[in-house]
Amino acid sequence: MHVSPIYRSRRAVVPVLLGVLLTLGACKRDEGPEHLARAEAKHAELVERGVPPKDPAWDAVIGELEKVPPDSKVFAEAQRRLSRLKELRTTPLPRRPLSRPGVPEGGSHSLDEQGLHPHDHSGHPGETDGGR
Length: 132
Fold this sequence. Notes:
Blueprint: H1 5-26, H2 32-49, H3 59-66, H4 75-90, H5 111-114
Helix pairs in contact: 2-3
């Protein structure tokens, strides 16, 4: 049986095309580490500035962590951090203590109980010098 050269060249092209397609699929770049790095940088900035977890500025960190694809090598780490951040956003902050030297047990239990801002000196008992 005689096989034409055109038929032989078509048969040779099929394995080559399959190999190219498989190679392209296997070379897909993992974008997860880039998203995680951006989330870490923003996280460090917000922590440095003392931004509380419930502040909307943290949405950028959450957004980057959520962009890490499930097939990424850093997906588990991103999910762990995302879970922790969401937990911190739903946990109430502890009450702020008001400690005064020389008062038994430090004085009042909390600025929150008195309805005072920590930098507002008006209304503190015994202040007669204008807050100096």
